[in-house]
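Box 3.1 A note on notation
Throughout this textbook, protein chains are presented in two layers. The first layer is the amino acid sequence; the second is a token string describing backbone geometry. Keep the layers aligned when reading.
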Amino acid sequence: MNMPIYKSTLAKWMNDFVAFKQLQKFTYMDQALCLRYFDDFLVEKHFCASTLNRTIVELYIAPTQRYKPNTRYNRLSIVREFSRYLKLYERESYVLSQVPAKRPSYPRFYIYSDHEIAALIRMCFSLKPLVSHRTQTFATLIGLLATTGLRINEALSITLDDVDLEKQLLFIRKGKFSKDRWVPLSLSATHALGQYITIRKEISFNHEDNSLFLNQRKKKLRYDSVQNTFRHLIRQCQIRGNQPPRLHDLRHTYATKCLLKWYQHADINAKLPALATCMGHVNISSTQIYLHITAEIRAQAQRRFQENFNKNILNKGERT
């Protein structure tokens, strides 16, 4: 995903602020995009000052009341962080001391069923233009996200050189916190990637752009294009939740389905470190955010409890 371009009189400070955050090993791309909304607002209002003032910040805050709580919080929290940064260098600049919005108290996630993922992939082949590689690109990308749990930015940064089909591995360069890692591929994912790479090499045989996923102009596929297309696919498949299901929820789905699979025949505690490494987390606590208890997992937990109870309690009691 490309860095947003800021155009207001505070553009230099915004670029410096994002660069400062990235030096602290934060990817900070989503936040940088949120900051662009504020930058666009300043341009629209013909704001010409070199520092923030209370009036312009309050003008920006007022219309955000119509946004959903999480959207409002995200957009205003980045303004607060930026105002604090600017204050370090411009002492007269206004600081938004607190975000006038609250995060929703409930966790935001959606777990896709196997049927829904299959429907999304099938729907990709109805994307226009039908004769282009766009259909295969999005079908492969969604399948890859669902079977590896990659972050979307990581998937879009994969190059042809990062794919090792023989060893069934993907190399992720500089993921979150600038960490490199290898991610294993399932047999089905390896087969699908192999088919796509054959098509992909025919699209750009002169290797002008070595990115795995290309857009119609044979350039690296953009984050905003993927988000917009995925929302379209969600609507077409009529997939609904308490909140609109997101692309990032494929990552939640991957982790939760790993948990379900291990509940059936594996030691979960022994598997969690491997899952954390695969997902690019520095510790297990970060991975646990993505693990959700579904009806299937409850059923498996109940089954395992009953088996252990029969084996260790009932049978022991009968022997005594």
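The radius of gyration is 23 Å. The CA atoms of residues 161 and 205 lie 14 Å apart.
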